[in-house]
Every structure is written in structure tokens, then in C-alpha cells.
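Lab notebook, bench 4. The sequencing result for the construct came back, and we need a structural model before the next group meeting so we can plan mutations. Quick request posted to the team channel:

Model the 3D structure of this chain.
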Amino acid sequence: MRRLLLATGNPGKVREYRDLLCDVPFEVVTPPEAGIATTVEETGGTLEENARLKATALAEESGLLALADDSGLEVDALGGEPGPLSARYAGEDASDEDRVRYLLSRLGDVPWPGRTARFRCVIAIASPSGRTDLCQGQCEGFIMLEPRGANGFGYDPVFYLPELGMTMAELPQEAKNRVSHRGRAAKEARRLLASWADEQAS
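Done. Here's the predicted structure in C-alpha cell form:
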């Protein structure tokens, strides 16, 4: 089976993408499994730029079709922060707990109606020949006053989904995959990957 390089070293993303892409006509492999040690710096100013940077660099190096994403939390009361800086919002070596704590400190006493936010995910699929396709998904919610839930990663414990009455971190993985920004972007990515596979077979 043809291989698809999943261009991330984030264990949480690897787990989610193995579930989300379980039915694609490719064997999903990580950079270590493909013998790739390169780390691509996210120097773009947008989620789209960062996803494209990572996918194209690793496709070129590996000779494989590569899928990369960049995801971000956009908080309206903070002017859209942290956005593309979500993973580095509290510093380069900060833990998920550090980032959540810093986010809540930035919001301070912002009242509930003003704590609107969204998760956005942009996926780039790149071939070694230079073709790149983009797809994206987003999920609307609110930022909690304190974390809730033990599932997920990143900002999931403080991202509240009003239609479900839970934070992202309180959802079972299957339910999260249905409603999350990453799940919605991956749905489009699955369609694109099936199209790429058909084109390669013809």
C-alpha cells in the first residue's frame, strides 16, 4: 500500500489522525517510522502558511505524499489570539497545563458572554512533485473559567461546546472526532486523499 507521511511529532495529533484517517487508501506513517528526523519551523504568519510549509518540506525530503496541519485557538476577547502561536503561547517549552493557565490569566475576569472562541484547523496535503491541496475545519465554543475533563490535549479542557454541554476534553474520542475542527478538516482530507489515490492508479 502507498504510504502517507503524517507530518507531526505531536503524540496527541498522531493518535487522532490515525483514527480520522483509518479508512484512507494509504498506510499512515509518522516521520520516525519513515526515517525522517527533520523538524520544520512554523515561520508562517497564518495556519495555512504553516501547514503548507510542513507538508511541502517533508514531502520533498521523504519522497512520499505528506499531510500536515496547523491548528489554532482564536479567542475573540483577545483579538484572535493565540491563533498560529497557540502551541507557543506560553513559551517554547511550556506544557499544555502552562498554556491553559496562561490563557485563563489573559482572559482574567472577562464575563461568560465575552469568552467566545473557535478552534481552526488547516490541513495541507503535498506531493513530492510540488502539488499541494488545502482543506480546513472549525468549531465554535467558549473558554471555560477553569479546566474540565481528562481527555484530549492542548486547550481541550477549557474549550466548552454549548450544544453538547461539555468541554472538548470531556468527550470520548469518537465523539470529539465528529465535532472537532480537526475532525471536520479531516473529513475533507479523506475525500482529497481518495481522489489522489484514484489519480495515481489511473
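The mean pLDDT is 92.
Will bring this to the meeting.
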